[in-house]
Amino acid sequence: MAMSNSTRGGGRGRSGAILHVDMDAFFASVEQGRRPELKGLPVAVGGQGRRGVVASASYEARAYGVHSAMPSGRARQLCPEIVFLPGDHELYSEVSGRIMGILRSFTPLVEPLSVDEAFLDVSGAHRPPVEIGHLIRRQVRSQEGIGCAVGVAAVKFLAKLGSKLAKPQPDPAGPVGGIGVFEVPVGRERAFLAPRPVGDIWGVGPATLSRLSRSGIATIGELAEFPLERLEKVVGQAHARHLHSLANAVDPRPVASESTVKSMSREETFARDVYTHEALGAELAVLSDSVAARLREAGVAGRTVTVKVRFGDFSTITRSHTLAGSVDSGVVLARAAKRLLQAVDVAPGVRLIGVGVSDLEDSGQRQLALDLTGDGARAHSWHEVDRAVDLIRGKFGSGAIRPGSAADSGPGATGWIRPG
DNA sequence: TCTGGGGTCCTAGGACCC
DNA sequence: TCTGGGGTCCTAGGACCC
What we know:
This protein has helices at 26-34, 59-62, 72-78, 89-104, 129-144, 156-165, 189-193, 206-214, 220-225, 228-235, 237-247, 277-298, 330-342, 379-396, 404-408, and strands spanning 18-23, 43-46, 54-57, 83-85, 110-114, 117-121, 148-153, 181-183, 263-274, 300-311, 316-327, 350-362, 402-403, 416-417. The chain is of the alpha+beta class. It binds a DNA duplex (18 and 18 nucleotides) through residues 26, 46-47, 51-55, 68-77, 113-117, 202-208, 236-239, 261-269, 304, 306, 314, 316-322, 352, 354, 356.
């Protein structure tokens, strides 16, 4: 409460003290770094199957119009010579960790937003923020071989917009421009924002964009002038207040270097639609086991279990249930997930199944979900089994053991098997 | 060319309680 | 005599982000 973060936006000097650092084409850049023969070539990382999409595209690929979230088939059509790679997320996490380390050498106030971007609060640093931005770029380039853009501003969302404006532009002749560090001038934020499109605001996506557009709002300046009470009717109260503040360059969110995870989930899209509870249940067992292992690794457990089902026509439903106590056991989680799935008609065909756990708490103080899981006192013995499974995986790797019900596909199968 | 996977936050309605 | 109002929990869905 008493920290410096509340006074942002006014009178703290010439320069904004928030940095947003964003890696350029992160996954593709990591791949080009470890395989230099890929440098200068159009590279995409992502799923190559029937239903795959691009997760990251190099600037050479972007020059063809390829971008992330694009179906892989479309990417190949636009750029037949594109080099498609499956992705190595373990490696990306490692590289990300080292880059975050570089950022933390400038300030402890680092808030990672994802593997490839972070906010920094450098208000306590000795050097000017823009200079720090250039130093970061140099170090990330020299130590990891990856380019990045830095935005500098007084508040978070302006720093984020700044890094976007500092990025190079893809071009058939090679990436052009990209000043690397873009500072939003302090004291001139509103004038800077006014002519820009509302879509530049972090949090304005397609749905909000079309609602605003129907109200005649195209620029951030128009949004800033729009009466708040009317805006609330257009996009809802909370969203309206938030957007109205941002449009007026007000963003009180502090850089939060410590965060707690709120939910964990895993999902899987099938190459072809699946039509039976048996097959979906087997997949739920695998996904539940994976989620539960991550929960235990993080030392948390959760009370609310959610199953997500996406049908062949892409319509998506969720079914959730809150247990009396929290779970971190794959078997208990799978059982709850399968019960939820039983109430869903899967005859139309399912393209994706997922399982998630929320309402997380520290597993040290958790209460075992003894009764409402249907497990009775046996939940306690599953705890012992999970610990043994974690030990085996720690020694022999995550593939050393997997849930038996995934292989047996028998309705009540809960044994454990050693693959192969 | 049909659209991945892992998250966060918000809304809205119903149940239930006081 | 229709019957108030608030608070909290739970469930389902949607928007958005990378």
